[in-house]
Design brief:
With about 575 residues, this protein is of the alpha+beta class. The chain has helices at about 5-15, 35, 125-135, 165-170, 180-190, 225-245, 270-275, 295-315, 320-335, 345-350, 360-370, 380-390, 415-425, 450-455, 505-545, 565-575; strands at about 25-30, 45-50, 60-65, 105-110, 135-140, 175-180, 195-200, 210-220, 250-255, 275, 280-285, 400-405, 405-410, 465-470, 470-475, 480-485, 495. The chain has four domains: about 30-200, Glucose Oxidase, domain 1; about 210-255 and about 300-440, Glutaredoxin; about 450-495, no CATH class; about 525-575. The N and C termini lie far apart (about 95 Å). InterPro entries: PA_dom_sf (IPR046450), PA_domain (IPR003137), VSR_TRX (IPR056858).
């Protein structure tokens, strides 16, 4: 018997009145033809997929395509229609190729099919097929009017043993979900032969702060298939980045672990005893599902607690990044596959990361406490409260999960995507993001992108050159124009057009004018200095005249009243002159 599904179901039942499920939404702006633009000017709401590569901090401008005979694509797919994207588009008749010299394409596909004997194909499979055909993004249309989060596949679908890993690892385009009514609006426009362009907008999906806080919900169990493999690879790659962000005081990171519980009536059963600590209060599913062989859930939840203690002790000593070092070494040296997943191996890792130089094994043991005691564990109680969420954050029930500034990250668990999301969560006013962010800045100026399109339109102003910033792009003076160094009332750079009609380019004229302005400014400054010196000279003369007679520069005579002047009168006169 496996008790862990009961534990999970009970935990959800206990908290469903308090918890909420968040759909992380992004912006979808549609550049509609004039006939429909006024009616749908507000754009449409989309739900971000929990896999793929959303461009946090950036945008994607692309042409919308729907593979259907009525929308200009007569290709036939078998056994399901092409609009479901269940089969490779290279096998369609004729094949569908979405690579376009006119710029990127967002492919709109339908959820399902519902009535197929084979069942609906997975979201990730649709996106994979679209990516292989050349799509830059995918918009999945629901068969009803509500949004849901498209999850990554947990296991192989039976057709290809590495399907799950391939989807999790290799999908490199963003995917989003839209309700039926909004999807039908765009389908109708495409079927009428209208040109529809879409902008996926990820700039404001996550809350922004000057100091970014983020959480990583994980598990020390390494026998959960492709998801565990991806998670271990991510942690290993992210160690130096986490160290740089924490050490530079850019971010505040906290690890978390999902917990299960056993029903009170079953806490003394062998099933609960093998999967829980603290008399059934805190549990983890058996790694291999076999209660009588292999590792137990009790060993997993104990290691989860140990890793939280490593973080706590490291954070208390000003080393919050040591958790990453410990977890990486533990995954390599203490894996379940090598039969070394144990307390002994864990404490050897503790020694290897030099933890005894800033803490001790005794402190680690004290933090973990007596795992068999019939008492509450405050660290795990805090984890359960955070797991439930509140009015601002949804419940965490999927592993792995990342929250950034309280918002839930959506996308694949990979170095580039997670770092891009973290960098996008810094406040826009922060002019200098962490240096590591420059490694993943989205190319907003690539041909066909929003920046490229918007800057190239500003012909009259001269702001035709697209320049990348992490949070998007800025238009600067392009070829044939030169910056004047001035800004207009809207804060945009003022460009001057280069011309040779007068025998010299405009930039030379600008330099001459600037030089003349400089000369005038210097003359004014010299006159100002002369006046100040004159005033100071007069003040000194007046002060000295209190004690000795001075010749009058104008007439060469003595001032007969100089000795009778009072200091207050002299200074008052000098102040008025100044």
């Amino acid at each position: 018997m496996r008790i862990w599904p009961i534990c999970l179901a009970l935990f959800a039942a206990l908290h469903c009145a308090e918890c909420k499920f968040d759909i992380e939404k992004g912006g979808l702006r549609i550049k509609l033809p004039a006939s429909a633009a006024a009616e749908h000017s507000g754009g449409f709401e989309i739900a971000l997929g929990n896999f793929g590569s959303p461009r946090y901090g950036g945008e994607l401008l692309a042409k919308m395509v729907y593979v259907d005979p009525e929308a200009g694509y007569p290709s036939q797919c078998f056994p399901e229609a092409c609009n479901y994207a269940c089969e490779p588009f290279s096998e369609a008749s004729p094949p569908v190729d979405l690579h376009s010299p006119d710029g990127p394409v967002i492919l709109m596909v339908d959820r399902g099919p519902q009535d197929s004997p084979r069942g609906a194909c997975k979201f990730a499979k649709k996106v994979w097929n679209a990516q292989q055909a050349g799509a830059a993004g995918v918009l999945v249309v629901n068969y009803e009017d509500h949004l849901t989060t498209m999850e990554a596949p947990k296991d192989a679908d039976g057709q290809d043993e590495d399907t799950s890993y391939k989807f999790l690892k290799n999908i490199t385009i963003p995917a989003a979900f839209i309700g039926k009514s909004n999807g039908d609006i765009m389908k109708d426009l495409l079927k009428r032969g209208e040109q529809v362009h879409a902008i996926f907008d990820w700039k404001d999906v996550l809350p922004k702060r000057s100091l970014v806080s983020w959480e990583f919900w994980t598990n020390s169990n390494d026998q959960c298939g492709p998801i565990c493999d991806v998670q271990k690879e991510f942690i290993k790659e992210f160690v130096p980045v986490a160290h740089e962000l924490e050490h530079g005081n850019w971010t505040r990171f906290t690890p978390h672990f999902i917990l299960w519980i056993c029903p009170i009536s079953d806490r003394n059963t062998p099933e609960c005893s093998s999967q829980c600590i603290h008399q059934g209060r805190y549990c983890s599913p058996d790694p291999d599902g076999d209660l009588h062989d292999g590792y137990t859930g009790k060993e997993v939840v104990q290691e989860n607690l140990r890793q939280l203690c490593v973080y706590k002790l490291g954070n208390d000593s000003g080393r919050p990044w040591v958790w990453w070092e410990y977890v990486t070494k533990f995954a390599v040296q203490c894996s379940m596959d090598s039969s070394l997943y144990s307390q002994e191996c864990a404490e050897q890792v503790w020694d290897d990361i030099g933890a005894n130089s800033w803490s001790s094994r005794d402190a680690l043991h004290e933090c973990i406490g007596d795992i068999d005691a019939d008492t509450r564990n405050e660290i795990f109680e805090n984890e359960m409260d955070l797991q439930k969420g509140d009015s601002q954050t949804g419940e965490v029930y999927i592993l792995p999960t990342i929250r950034i500034n309280g918002g839930q990250y959506r996308g694949k668990l990979a170095y580039t995507e997670v770092l891009r999301a973290l960098c996008a969560a810094f406040e826009d006013e922060q002019k200098q993001p962490p240096p590591v962010c420059l490694k993943v800045a989205d190319d907003s100026c690539r041909p066909g992108s929003l920046g490229d399109a918007m800057c190239s339109r500003n012909i009259e102003s001269g702001l035709t050159q697209c320049s990348n910033t992490f949070n998007g792009y800025t238009c600067t003076c392009g070829p044939g124009f030169l910056s004047t160094g001035l800004m207009d009332s809207n804060g945009y750079e003022i460009c001057a057009k280069i011309s040779t009609k007068t025998g010299m380019p405009t930039y030379a004229v600008i330099l001459i004018v600037a030089g003349a302005i400089g000369i005038v400014a210097a003359a004014c400054y010299a006159a100002y200095r002369l006046r100040i010196r004159s005033a100071m000279h007069q003040e000194i003369r007046d002060i000295m005249a209190q004690y000795m007679p001075l010749e009058d520069n104008e007439g060469g005579t003595l001032d007969p009243n100089a000795a009778s002047r009072r200091p207050g009168q002299v200074h008052s006169q000098a102040d008025s002159q100044a």
